[in-house]
Amino acid sequence: xxxxxxxxxxxxxxxxxxxxxxxxxxxxxxxxxxxxxxxxxxxxxxxxxxxxxxxxxxxxxxxxxxxxxxxxxxxxxxxxxxxxxxxxxxxxxxxxxxxxxxxxxxxxxxxxxxxxxxxxxxxxxxxxxxxxxxxxxxxxxxxxxxxxxxxxxxxxxxxxxxxxxxxxxxxxxxxxxxxxxxxxxxxxxxxxxxxxxxxxxxxxxxxxxxxxxxxxxxxxxxxxxxxxxxxxxxxxxxxxxxxxxxxxxxxxxxxxxx
Length: 258
What we know:
Elements: H1 4-9, H2 24-28, H3 71-76, H4 80-90, E1 94-99, E2 108-118, E3 134-143, E4 148-152, E5 166-167, E6 170-173, E7 179-180, E8 188-192, E9 200-209, E10 217-226, H5 230-237, E11 247-256
Antiparallel strand pairs: 1-2, 2-9, 3-4, 3-5, 3-10, 6-7, 6-8, 10-11
């Protein structure tokens, strides 16, 4: 059910050499507010004493051990440091590259690619309950006057993602082959579209460029994260359900001119 350790063990951060391996503790027990300590940031020592009267140490491991969960501490109203670290983790583990057409035209379909790189997590993005986590791309294409000519990955008033949103997750099925997020009923994994450590996924988009795009257009992309679909929280908690935070992890843009 939980694959995070296996993802690290079989990944590039585990080199087999203790001198070069980046262990789970090297990120999750060095982090503190202002020090996300991911694979893409520095992971500095935290000198001090681990107890009153204890000896001075070059490094005292922190015990926040935070991942990406900013929702539960927020909902409980405790652990502001944990919320801060969760945001900083998410905002220091991925980058976006937009690959635009070399010879753009109007009144035809245009193709763009958005490459999402896992540069900071020692495991897949997302990890843990990846069949529940929501990690997705939001894309907006606007003409020179700011009018939207294409979009994907928006969220409606009920907190539901648009159809055809590009999600990075695991999809499971029961023994009859029906989709499920209930791990007690899951029989198989039918799709794994997550991003491996130091790896990437490239999403392709095609859209029609109207005449209003003759002056060029701008592509804007955001990688966004939510701990679970809002509909699941509403179903579980009913009237007590609160809105889960959506965290912008990284973004990128490209201007296409003729």
